[in-house]
Write a structure and sequence with these properties.
about 240 residues, Rossmann fold, 8 helices, alpha/beta, single chain, about 45% helix, about 15% strand, seven-stranded parallel β-sheet
Length: about 240
């Protein structure tokens, strides 16, 4: 559990569903939300929503694969907002492709989005948190983090790498007071993509058959507030009717 009552919560990959919900949830706790995505202008509705709820928000456009941009991002937040108490990596890159049709260019891009960007987020967060002896770093995962599916070799490779990163960081920094957790989201999430591309699955929303972004976000806040004698390292979230 963080010992501070103010500071920043960075969400790398703050989209319109899960990432945005996580940023807004941390803003409600009193932290300044710092949602980040490549297109900074796309964050304006989220920033307006957080402001309307009485929260503080600093939206930033940045490419999470760019090392210089990530260093500058974390430096800026520490100067303009205050200590980074939470860092969430929420970039997905879920894009299917038959293995025989996969290209090196596409495979590399997915790896950069999942693994390289995750590494830069974790490293820069750790550089600020470890000396203070506190902070939370949470990595959003997927079913592909645990098993590779047909047509998802690139995505599974990137997400497996992210899980390994989480394990290494937790073992290295947990004893130094930094809570690192890997959150496996196993199931369809209530997004426009699921609504438009998988209408039959989306119909299960009324039965709580798909994941609610607000419910997911509440679990990230719960992780941050855990007492350190009982930290969770890996959390598995899925709808009650999801097969696994």
């Amino acid at each position: 559990m963080s010992g501070a009552t103010s500071g920043a919560a960075i969400v790398i990959g703050a989209g319109d569903a899960t990432g945005g919900a996580i940023a807004a949830a941390f803003a409600r706790t009193g932290l300044t939300a710092v949602p980040v995505r490549r297109d900074g202008a796309a964050l304006e509705p989220l920033a307006a929503r957080i402001a309307a709820e009485g929260g503080q928000c600093l939206p930033i456009g940045a490419d999470a694969r760019d090392e210089d941009a990530m260093v500058a991002l974390f430096d800026r937040v520490e100067v303009e907002v205050g200590p980074i108490e939470v860092a969430v990596f929420n970039i997905g890159a879920n894009s299917p492709m038959a293995l025989l049709d996969e290209t090196a260019r596409r495979y590399r891009k997915i790896w950069e989005l999942c693994a390289l960007a995750g590494f830069l987020t974790v490293r820069e967060a750790g550089r600020r948190m470890v000396p203070r002896g506190r902070g939370s770093i949470f990595l959003t995962a997927a079913t592909a983090s645990l098993r590779g599916g047909a047509g998802f070799a690139a995505f599974a490779g990137g997400k497996h790498a992210l899980r390994a990163l989480a394990q290494s960081a937790a073992r290295e920094w947990g004893p130094k007071g930094v809570h690192v957790a890997h959150v496996v989201i196993d199931g369809a999430i209530d997004t426009a993509f699921i609504r438009d591309q998988f209408p039959e699955r989306y119909k299960l929303k009324g039965q709580d058959g798909i994941l609610d972004p607000e419910a997911i976000a509440a679990m990230y806040v719960m992780l941050h507030n855990q007492q350190r004698s009982a930290w969770t390292h890996e959390l598995d979230l899925r709808p009650w009717m999801e097969k696994f």
